[in-house]
Amino acid sequence: MDSKLFSFIAASFTSLWWTNLPSIVITLLLFMCACLTIRKNQHLGYFLLGIIWMASVGHWQYSLQLSSEQTSQPVQIIGEVNSLVITEKNIRFNIKVTHIADQHLLFTKIFHLSWREPAWQVQQGQRVKLWVKVKPPHGLANEAGFNYQQWLFSEGINATGYVKSDDDNTLLANVNSIRQTLLNRMLGFDLPQRSWLAAVTFGYRGLLQQEDWHLVQKTGVAHLIAISGLHLALVASVSYVLIAWAGGGLISRFYSLHHINLHNVAMLLTLFTTLAYSALAGFGLPTLRAWLMLFLFSVLFLWNKHLGARRLILLGLTGFVFLFPLSIFGLSFWLSFSAVTIICFIFWRWPVKQANFSLTAIFSGMVKVQLCLTVLMLPLVAWQFSYVSTVSPLVNLIAVPVVTMVLVPICLVAVICLAFSPDWAFELFSYADLILSYGLTFLNFALKIKASFFNIPTFPAAVWFFVFLFVLGCCLPSFWLNKKYLFLLLVPLASHLLSPKINTWQLDVLDVGHGLAVLISKNNHAIIYDVGASYPSGFNMADSVLLPILQARGFSKVDVVFISHKDNDHAGSLPQLLKGIEVSQVITNQDKCQQDFAISWQGLSIEALWPDNALKHNDNNGSCVIKVSDQYHSILLPGDINKSIEKQLVGLYPKQLKSDILVAAHHGSNTSSSAEFIQTVGAKYVIFSQGFMNRWRFPRQEVVDRYQTYNPILFSTSHSGQVSFQIEYNSTTPVILKTFRQDIYPYWYANSTHH
Predict the structure, then answer these.
(1) What is each CA distance from 453 to 62, 213, 394, 471, 603, in whole angstroms?
(2) pTM of the complete model
(3) Which of 100, 268, 298, 347 is deepest in the core (most CB within 10 A)?
């Protein structure tokens, strides 16, 4: 049985490496093969079923995508607000759509919407009619940073967009969910740490700021502010004990009830109480995963079946892949099940002996579990987040029991009191608020300790896999393997750490939506040309794109930042960049970056061709135009200049403009990219840096047509994501070209809108 389940799970997980979905015809052929082989070769049959299941799920998700008519113009929708919402302006929420343009949907779709100035206070549970402008799920595609598009896919979100201001937007039913109502009451209390209370109690993390996330991630306690297995296990334990205690008292008083199996009743009722708690957490996937495991355990208990930890994990995985298949494309799935598997391994390797049961044994057991969990999870965390927290074991050793045994119970009782006694609820939440205040002080103290965490460069997944095998091998009993050869597993890591300097330089045109950010690097040094936009919501391209890639590449500082001009889409994220990393020099078109400016950097020549005087021109035409070159290859970065400036440059620098790689001026606007300029530059590669389905329709078709007349290879960041060129220094060797969506991360679930 275990091997069959493993075959199904392994086949399902292969979908993580598919670059394309098997066609419907191939899926049907595989289904026929599975039917023919499952009796004779069950393992192959179950393996084929796993592939068929994930292929079917993928095709189902594709079938839910909107038509081009629905994304090309505003549409009217009817649906139910599915997210907790607490602010009154600039809100974001999910809506379960039942009607599009008066057409009833057979299957609901989930839209992720923003609304700048809502006509009423939006709340979870409301039924609404809205005019919206939506587009297929899409996210920035860079080698580092949060993969928003993959997250949207894993959450089953079918479209993103915004609500248009319209008199026809209507609140059809003003019915708040119980979860929203309770959250509103709690937020009505004047408590300093209410943002953390909302996260711990209701799983609502929308009030947490960027610095809050930095604090919990770098100290290793981010898992404690998500309602997950630890919280559910506590609720289950308390519920079982209380039900058994109350039921025992009742049964002992009435002889006619003595035949009732109190354990079975308590187990069944515990399932319902934990399900209610999951509802309080909004049925988040971590909570549902934990509840599914509890359900399996309860069913086995009621049937008097004893299964080992291995089969229980396999059954849980199979159930979750079957019920929530999209979740395997989200990181939380892997973190949760890795942690559960490692804990099972720890108890197998170092079993708890009843003879040693004491407070000392409990404490030593907690220390052992926490240390082993941290060490064995380290390769996965380091691979995904590019940092290692050295204080995490100590912090978790204190934080886990305090949060699960003290803070969460107080918050749960306080939530119950919200329904009938707000005064009691306020008192309890005040105690919880005090505990959180001390806890945050402790976390900030831990973070200030020297070397509390350190960033590490990004290594390939295979390197971290060998590191994990090394750590696992160290934990296994000595009689299982000869540990003196384990160090060989660290050779791939050492080869990456000790890799010599390579004689290449690299250009990365990053995907920053509508805007521009270019990274030029050589010999562990970096230059940036423009930094992308920053928005009123706080979202900015420095925190989301530039700083993650600099950290992943192991850069501790940036030598020069060039700002072409002061428009938000080019310069908006500069304050956040300067806050996040050391920058030796910032050069703008208002100071040095003007004609006749030239420097040599890492052997490369960097010269400014424009402006003659930025004050004589508007923002776009005053853009700093620079050329970066070695003896054989060159890059031209023209900012947002228009055709009139291009004409002047052609007259001034008919030879110097010649470049291999050109970032198209003004994102592909028809006000730029004149035929004469295109011909003079003669670029082999041209990149348009623009947003997906942007309102200006950049790059304009007439601009694309003009470029195609001269046969360069064209790229757009909205379609290809990050575009990277690796160039051999002072060599005629052809450049090596990679794009994120086609070469670096070409998987179907992260690029579904581009198939």
Answers:
(1) 41, 14, 13, 20, 34
(2) 0.90
(3) 100
